[in-house]
Task: structure prediction
Amino acid sequence: MRRGVANRVVAEHLGVPRGTIGWWRSEDRRHRGEAYTQPTDCPRCTGREVDQQAYAYLLGLYLGDGHIISKYKQHHLSIFCDASRPGLIDAAEQAMHLVMPLPKVGRVQRQGCIEVKSYTLHWTCLFPQHGPGKKHERHIALEEWQQQIVDAHPWEFLRGLIHSDGCRVTNWTTRVVAGVKKRYEYPRYFFTNKSDDIRKLCTDTLTAVGVQWTILARGSDPFNVSIARKESVALMDAHIGPKY
Result:
């Protein structure tokens, strides 16, 4: 073990559980007074170049349906994905791997959804918006380096937001033409989030890429960003499309 042989190899050689090998290794370090520092490939801590497209997408997912657990012996980023959208689940997992390849990524079946989890303390370095309480109950603002990534890859950021808290739907209406009632269908996009700050991040980015939007209230709450104009929907279809 001191020569650097992996826990898995030692466990297979001795025929004991890998967790036992890990405990032996930690006890050996403790007896020798050797401090253990978990290896990391965090771009903020190591200076490694981050995959900006993957990060912009993951940032959108995090602001929508993500959270970070950061406490003693439990540190992970979780993104909750619709269980009926396997493409979305795969995309979330791939984005985590591309942003930080070293941490372990897993999937947990929940009721109606899949929780995609990546285990490392360093997710708080990449998502400084993490804090106590719900995101819509605290101020959310991007740091300058995050905004630069969003400005460089706005469509990936929007794709993450739509894939988390958005959708593409088909509305319909009827019109009387030459005395005959006809049904017309038209697509539109929605982004729904209780946080005023997160909705503004969405609408500011939509404006930057030339997408026209409006706010639709649910009762008295203006939680819905709507994109219904034909040209804007066509732009969204070209860069985002429906969830899959």
Notes: The first strand starts at residue 66 and ends at 71. Strands lie at 66-71, 74-82, 104-110, 113-119, 166-177, 180-192, 214-218, 221-227. The domain at 164-239 is CATH 3.10.28.10 (Endonuclease I-creI). DSSP finds ten helices and eight strands in the chain.
